[in-house]
Design a protein that fits this description.
This protein is α+β, with helices and mostly antiparallel strands. About 65% of the residues lie in helices and about 10% in strands. Strand 1 and strand 2 form a beta hairpin. GO terms for molecular function: DNA binding; structural constituent of chromatin.
Length: about 170
Amino acid sequence: MGDDAGRRESRSMEETKKKKKKKKKKKKKKKKKKKKKKKKKKKKKKKKKKKKKKKKKKKKKKKKKKKKKKKKKKKKKKKKKKKKKKKKKKKKKKKKKKKKMVITRSFSNHIYTSLFPISERTLRLHVEMMMVLRGATVVAANIGKVVPNFEQEVECTSCECVIGSEVASSG
């Protein structure tokens, strides 16, 4: 009978040992699982942070690019406006110049005028054409004076405008 009790005791001890071992194993497994979970969470967090950083960088880059593009567009617009203004100014200048048509020459101090609104350059060319026949050259321009009375009138054969000459008054 005592033998039986001893066997029972040893069996219960073994069972307790087994239970303890099982519990330990379970605890270890749980710890491992927890560690794994923590690691995974950490990794996920890191990944998220990296992604966020990347997104932020991308956004910054995009913003910079947009700003640069806007600046470039503004510069281009300004340049275009400037060019337009310059063109307009040039056109105005050209228009203004066309109205002036009195030029002087050194030969016997005559002033040549056209009866039609032609440019000073054209008038100079016409006078030069006329002067070649008389052996003189056109030297300086005296723009802004209109001579009303002509000593002699010559009709230009190239554009049918009338060119006249008058002796320039001294003083």
